[in-house]
Structure formats: structure tokens, C-alpha cells
Amino acid sequence: MKMILKKIILLSLSVLLIGLTGYAQEKMIDEIVGVVGQKIILKSDVESMALQYKSRGENHGDNLKCFAFEELLYQALLVNQAKTDSIEVSDIQVEGELTRRMNKFEEQMGGREAMEKYFNKPYSEIENHFRSIIKDQLTAQQMENTITGDISVTPQEVKKYFKTIPKDSLPLIDTKIELAQIVIYPKIKDKQIKQIKKSLQEYKDRVQKGEDFGFLAGMYSDDIASAQKDGDLGWVRRGDLVPEFAAAAFAMTKPNEVSDIIKTEYGYHIIQFLGSKGERIHIKHILKIPKPLTSEKIKAKAKLDSIAANIRSGKISFEQAAILYSDDKESSNSGGIVVNPYTGTSEFSSSQLDPATNYILKQMKTGEIS
After folding, report:
1. Nearest to 192 by CA among 294, 270, 265
2. CATH code at position 140
3. Residue 259 contacts by C-beta under 8 Å, 6 or more apart in sequence?
4. How confident is the model at residue 132 (pLDDT cuts 50, 70, 90)?
């Protein structure tokens, strides 16, 4: 239904699209790929949105960037049409939504100070940055509601519409999955972490003596994807990076500067700063991931086997075991229930789960323990 209404809206604004296409081709400057009224769409905006879709596990086929570009055009068109039709959102609406989101950011990042460190800006500047984004989003929503307000579609009309679509062209709807987990992490010995830090410090020293950072990244980084590109992460925004990594990367200003060792949820890194352009920076990194000893893996598996046996025998419930024993504090606090980070609910589509987990779940019945 949403897609049908969206097509109606795009058709009603098709004159703007036609004008935009010609203008963008003739006037493209640097990385500008679209202009709607006073709004510009950059190539980096399209790539960033495409990466967000990928990170959320959304699959839009081979035309992912086209899909992202259409979404950005769609919002820009609505905002531009809203100006033409004198549709505005009130400052009260904007400030209310801004306050809600800023509070959410603070909660997720562990306080205002952590938030300022992550964005490398004072709180007031962060507010100003998001105020315009939120205003555009609310304006687009209000314009969409205005356009679709008088549209009524009956169930019979929807059924008739779908009957005109060939069966092999109908989209597949993913099964929704809910799962609970108990996680036991194999212990990492202090000597392993010391060895990793020693190796990273040696790499930094070698770069400072004249060796090429990219060569070392290609040889030693545990991030296989970036290692194939000499550790190059390309031009990234602060929001593309985890907080600890972003704080260190955006604190550097000198070309070819190498950071101290940074710990993140992925492991331990050193970063090389290559340059900045507006809100984006160009960086490389070397990642080393602590790998538990086989003996520690065996201990973790044995502990999980023991917990599973107690649950199956009725000595303890899955929820109680998750609260008492799971190393994943986020899910353990809710009795093991895993929350989808992209939706905030407990439902996942199969495409949002990693292949190994998805494969196991497909073999299981409701209530069964792996």
C-alpha cells in the first residue's frame, strides 16, 4: 500500500523530477548529483544511505544506490512542494521531536559528555545540526499526508491491483523471527592482549620510521575487507564509525598522523589520518582481534552445554539462565530476548541475521533450544 501511494506522489510531482534530471546533468559540480529547489543531494549522501541499508540487512538488489537516490529525491521533492504549497511545521513540533531524539542519543551514548566527544562538537552545535534534518523530515511527512489525505483504496481494489501482477514478479515477504540467546564469551588471556598491543605499537613505530602504513595494513590487519585496500576505509563521516573509533579519528588533524592504540567492540586498532573534507575524513586502519585459545573455547562450550542441560531438565528456565549466566548484558537483562537494533523491536527478518544464525534457526521449532 505504501509503495502504491508513494508512486502516486512521485507521479504528481513528476514535472519536478523531469526538470531535476536535466538540471543535474548540465550543472553537476563536484559531487552534486541532484538539486530540488534549494536542496542539494550529494553523491556521498547516496553512498551513505546505501551503506545504512546494507548495515540494516536490507536487500534492494543490484540497484541499491538507485534506490537510495530515489528515497533522497522523494524527501527533497516533498519538502520543495511543501514550500510551494506553504505547508510548514511549527517550531514546537520541531523542538519537541529534537528533544526526544537528543535524549535518545544521550541515553545510547552514555551521557551528554560522551555525545559531545563522539560528534566532536558542543551540544548546541549538535542540536543545530539535527534541527534542520528533523524539520525536513517532519515537513516531508506532513506534505505526504496532505497529498494522500483524500486517497481511499478499498481492499477489493488492492486485491484487483495485485491480481494484475504476474506471480513470479510478486515480492517475497520475509518471515519474522524472535529469538532469545545465552552468550558465553571465551576468556581472553591478558598476555594475548599485551601481545596485540605490542604488535600494534611496533607497526606505529615502523610507520614513524618511514614504512608505508598501507603495506603493513595489507600484511597484518585482521579486517580482511580493508586490508585488501591497504587498510583504506575511504571518506567517512562520524556517524559511520563506532564512538571510540570516531573520537580518535576525528581528533587527528595532521596528514599521515598515526593514532595511539584504540580499543573498540571489534578489537584493537591504530588509525592513520590522510585528510579531511567538510564533515568527512579519509583514514586507514590496522585492526587486530584477540583470538581465544582453544582451551578457553572448550570451557565456554562446556558451560553452555551444562546450562542447556539444566534448562531442558526443568531445573531453570531459559529466562532465568540468561539473567544469571549470559555475558551479553543487553539481552540478559530481558531474559535473553534479542532486540533488533534497526527497529527497536524483538522481530527480525531472516536477511537481518548473520547466515550462520539464520541457518540454525531455520532447523528449529518454536521453543526449542539449539
Report:
1. 294
2. 1.10.4030.10
3. 248, 249, 251, 252, 269, 270, 271, 272, 273
4. confident
Bridge-partner residues for 235, per DSSP? 282
Does residue 355 sit in the same domain as residue 319? yes
User: Quick check: 21 pLDDT over 60?
Assistant: no
- The answer to whether 33 and 43 are in contact (CB under 8 A) is yes
Task: Name the more confident of 69 and 310.
Answer: 310
Domain span at 122? 2-161
User: Does an H or E element contain 6, and which?
Assistant: helix 2-12
Extract the C-alpha cell encoding 275: 585528510
CA distance readout (Å), 307 to 11, 97, 253 = 58, 44, 50
Residue that terminates a domain, selected from 288, 308, 337: 288
> Is residue 333's pLDDT more than 90?
no
| pLDDT at residue 268, rounded to an integer | 95
pLDDT digits (tens, 9 = 90+) for 53-69: 665 566 666 678 888 88
- In whole angstroms, what is the distance from residue 43 CA to residue 63 CA? 15
Q: pTM score > 0.85 for this model? A: no
Helix (H, G, I), strand (E, B) or coil at 281: strand
